Structures are given as structure tokens and as C-alpha cells.
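Appendix C reproduces, verbatim, an entry submitted by the partner laboratory led by Prof. M.T., so that reviewers can inspect both the input and the predicted structure.
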Amino acid sequence: MADLKYVGTSVLRKDAVDKVTGAAEFIDDRFLGPLLYVKMKKSTIPHGKIKKLDVSKAQAHPGVKIVMTGKDYPNKIGLYLVDRDFVAVDKVRFIGEPVAIVAATSERAALEAVELIDVEYDELPGVFDPREGMKPGSPLVHDDLEAYERVPIFYPVPGTNISNHFKLRKGDVEKGFAEADLVIERDYYVPQMQHVPIETHKAAAHWSPGGKLTVWSTAQSPNVVRQLLAKAFGLPMHNIRVISSYIGGGFGCKAGASIEGLAIPIAIKFPGYVVKIVFNREEDMQGTFMRQGLYSNLKTGVRNDGRITALEYKMVWDGGAYTEYGVNIVRAAGYSSTGAYDIPNVKTDSYCVYTNNSIGGPVRGFGMCEMQWGIERQIEAIAKELNMDPLEVRLLNGMKEGSTSAAGQVVHHVAYDKCLQVVADKIGWGKKEGKFRGKGIAGLVKCPAQPSNAASSAIIRINEDGSAHVMIGATEMGQGMLTAISQIAAEGLNIPLEKIDIKVPDTDFTPYEWQSVGSRVTYTCGTAVKRAAEDALGQIYTVASNLLEVPKGDLTFDGKMIYSTKDKNIKATIREVTDSCKKCTGEGIAGPIIGRGSFVPTNMTNLDPETGQGNPGLFYCFGATAVEVEVDPETGVITVLQLASSIDAGKAINPQLCHVQLHGGAIMGLSTALYEEVKFDKGVMLNRNFTDYKIAAIDNTPHLDSFIIETPEVNGPYGARGIGEQPMIGVAPAIANAVCDALDIDVNTFPLTPERVWQAIKAKQ
């Protein structure tokens, strides 16, 4: 590790100059050819049958090319559970669901035509609370759940609104409670939130006369989009090209497939046109994935010395109208349900429940923010009841080398105690600073929620001047992935970083990548790139050995020249190696140098359907957050005075980018902790714009400190593991714990708005 030249260095981002000068190409910059603009007629009720749908006036409107309904879209779509229609067929399930699609030669004509579509509904009773939706006799959001195709690791309950029931059983929970001196049981709630990336969802499609479909998309998952579209429209995959330009933020809302399919039947009918669809902010907030709400009940048994003996966790998730992606969040939260703690006896039931609210799906943290809110608040309650230091309780129960997760997987390379201690020290843990001030701490853990076949691959082409083209399928959405991957390639090839060229995905040219989700890309794609670099370097040595007539083991490469280690006068330039012919005879030696590398997880297994036991994790990443707050007892307003965040990155490929991730995650976590909450009234989203949906701004962001711990992940590239989502997880419980410390009050839902805090103060008085 000490000899690394490019890994571990804070270099300039690969995309920095292009982005700050406006040269970077986003989706809107990529379209060629005449455009058709797509707009949607959207449902105005949360649940009902489509009684009448008359599109004749819209079809006759000047500039309109075509109006399409759900009957024009042949199949449903879904990554894990195939339950979702591109456009409603016979029935609508949430307000804002598309019921008809208009394509016109101008945006104005499309908008005018949408208003001419006549829709009538037979309204049905709605389901708006998942706890009610679980009950027998509740209205069914999906009448044919049992007929839906699914990945067999998910367990819907036919005849109900439960689209997945994940069970976990570890040890003997009743025995664990019997061994406890204290049992604490509490309810917790986490509302829906929106990702609000700076760039809304956009997509376009073009059908060539030769039958080639090109899709431009703000997709985090170009290859998954291609797979899902091929299946939904019955097209061979080689006839679908998905291009993902730079993305203006994702945070999970652009995972899987979303709006791409809306444009495809139109593109097929009008070859040569680019069919473009762009969501405005309200459409983006109402019609795409949002974080699922969570109602949970947590029961914990603990001995008087602070050791937790048992945990029983019931989670009821508001999956929304479609749970094709959300079922996996419920599973991930279930198998991680002890958080960062080694608890011997566990019983968890995690339910994904259909409602007539907007679609639930992946958000930064992938269920960990919601699930660990309850865990970390419960730890605080335990410490308070036992009159123990909350930090001491966490250190006592926290995972260590060789601990087992809730699923029974043995966890390695653990420095959770260091993560806790460094942030506690930074905020002056244990020192009371003022009457209405308090300090709080929360731990966190996350492992990527991905299937065992979630592969990464990379191709590296060495040019005649010694520069290299790196081709990968992962997406750059602001996280700095292109830079970190370039550093890994430069290190593996021993080529200067400025000679590495890396581009955004295009499925016709870049190799397979499962998805840019789950804090996995640095680990999985980085490993594939490292292996591709090693493969290319091996080819360089093979050719040079033949060219110079020197054994491969006696050669070294400095990025420009290949030398004999025994005689430096025996050497060849990289150009001579790539030309691949002997000087004396002109005899050809080899073809172009193209390195290939791939990665597929080998340490993961399916989980037992009754116990949830197995190996679900690729790696485990630990961290901690500590805050100091001041609370105004008259208004309930919380001021965060300082926030410290730590993460065990294994190895920081680019330390500066790691710190930026910690700061960004902390701010996003603070925003959800204090401000963000999607509000529904019987399926009506009340705050679907930035006027009513509040997020943190620069003037309410506190001083931030970040700390990178490095406990090498032996299977990761140069010891690295992914850290993108983790810094958000512990912020909300840390702030709530600090408020509890300041005023001795408990607020068990967030955001911690002044109204909620004030009500808790008054309730205590």
C-alpha cells in the first residue's frame, strides 16, 4: 500500500472542467433529429376503474402525431416483482398515474391536447395506511398479485396487499427475553421523502428504419433498463442501445427503469423522430420513486450491564401503488435488522404493503435510514433506563471482528469502535455545554443489497502512445466515480492519470454493469477495472518479452518504457509494444492490447425463506455520526451547532472525494432529519414542489467535520469499500438523541420539526 502512486491521492475530478464550463453533455444535449414531445394525462383519483377514456379530440388537435393508452403497451415491467404498467390499464392506483400519452411536434400542442382527453372513473375505496392495508377485508390495490412474475427470493401473500413478507429468525428470541433484566418496547415512524435531484427524470427514444432502438436516459442502470425494455416490448437486446450521459443526481430514484418505456411505442410508429419526455418538478416528485414510509415496533431485551439479549422487530412499509423495486428494500432492512450490533436472538418480520400512495422505491441508504432510526433511538432508550452512557452501550454491543449479522453472516474487517470514538471525541462527548444544549451519537452499517449475480466488467484499450481508454458501464451522477475508477486504472497500469480516458455508459460499446446503486461501484466496478488493468499489463509484458527476448519476470514498466531489470539498455517503448512486431524481421507478434476484467460476488448466498439466515452481504461498511444541538424550548426550533461524521472506507481511493461524500451525505441526512416529509391526504400529495417541500439550504447547514478510517477490505480494489450512501444513515437518530439529551424529551418520528419538538416539550410539562 505504501508504494501506491495514484490510489490514495486527492486528484482533480475527471469531469470537473467539463461540468463547470458547461461542456459536459447531459441528456438534453444529446438529441439529433426532429423531435416529438410527450406529455401525460394523469389520474386525478387514487384508486378506481377507468370507466371512459375518449382521446378523439386530442388526436385531432393540430400538431398531435398520436395518442396512446395502456392497451398500446403490451407488458408490465418490474425488476424484482413484475407489477407495474407503463400506462394504466383498466384501473388507476395512485394520483398522477399516466392514463394516456400524447406525442406532438411541439410541447405546447402536447399540453393542449392532454387537456382535451376525457376520462371518467368508477372510484374505489383506497388504502392509505399500510397497517390498515394488511388487515383482512382491506380493498385490494392489486387483485391479481399471485399471477405476477417475481424473483423467487420475494414472498408475496396472495389475496392481500402484502407484496413481500421477509422473515428473519436468529437464535431463540423468547429465551433472549427471558434472560433480560429489562424489556423496552416502542413504536417508530418514518415518513415518505423525495430524492429531489437537481435534474429531473428525462428520456428520449429513436427508432431507426433498420429496427434499431436508441434510448437516452437519466438512468443509474443502463443495462437493467435495456433488459427490462427488451422483455416489456419483446425486442432482442442487440437491437436496443441505451445511452446514459452525465446525470444531475440520482440517489436511487433513477435506478431500474422509470419513464423510458413511455416513449418507445411512439418511436416505433414514427421512425426517424426522437421522442422526448421530460418530467417537471411536480411530475418528478409525484410520479417517480420515493422513499417508502415505515411504521415499526421494536422490542428489546437487555441485561443490567447493558448487553442486549434479544430483539423483536416488526416493520410495515408503505410500498405505494407499485412495489416492483420496493420489495427489495423491505428484504434488505430485514436481514440487516440488528443494525451495527451483534445481538444473539432476533425475530424480524418485514412487510411490504401496497397502498394508493405514490410509488415507493430505492433512496440513498436503501432502507437503512428508516430501519436504523428505530435501532439507534432504542439504544438511547436503553442507556437512559439503565443510567448508562449511550456511547458505552454502543461500544459494548457493537459488531467486532468475527461478529455475526442478523442473518448469521460472519463480519470481518470491522472498526466500528474507532468510528464511534473519533466522532465522540470531536464533539467533546460527556461535556455539558449549556442549559438547552445536548449531544447525540448514532452508529450505522450498510452492506450492498444486490443479487449474487450482480456483475461488473471492464475493458481497457492501450493506445499506441501509452494512453488508455477505460470502458465501464457504471454511471456518473455526481459522486466522482469516473475519477476514482480512473485512479484504480492508472495504479494498475502504472500509467499517469492524465493518460486515462473514461466515458459515460453506452450499452452498444461499454461492457456490462449491473447497476450504479448500493454503494457498490467502487468495490465491484473498481475490482473489474483493476483486473482489466492487470490483464492489459500482463499482455504488455508478454509482447515485450517476445520483442526483447527477455523473460517476463525480468521486465518492469514505468508507464513509458518497458525495461529489463537486469540490463536497462534492453528496453522498448510502449509504441513498439503496441505495434507488436520484431524489429529485425518485421514478424508480427500479437494483436492490439485490450485488457478485460470482471467481478461477480462469490461470498453471497440465498437466505432461508423461514429464518432469513445466510450470507446476503458483499461487504459491511461501518460509520458513526455525532452532533451537538441547541433547542429553543419556547419554539421547538433545533439549531445544529456541530456535526461530525466518520466512515471506514477500507482505503480511500481519493480522500478528498471521500470527504465530499461524507459532507454530502451528512447534509442530506440533516435535511431529512429536520425538514423533509412528503405529506399525503388520502392519496393527494400536498407538497409536490419546492415551495411546500423543504430541504436544507446553505444558511441552515452547520459546521461539518469528517473522518476516514481505513481498515482494508481484503477483496476490494486496493482495500477499498463503497461509502456513498452510509453517511446519511446516522444523522437523524443522532440529532434526535441530542435533543433528548438537551431537554429530556423523546420524538420517535422525523423530521424533527419545531411543531413536533414543541409538542413533545409541552407533553412533558
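The chain has three domains: 16-24+453-599, 31-124+201-278, 290-451+605-764. Additional entries are available on request from the coordinating office.
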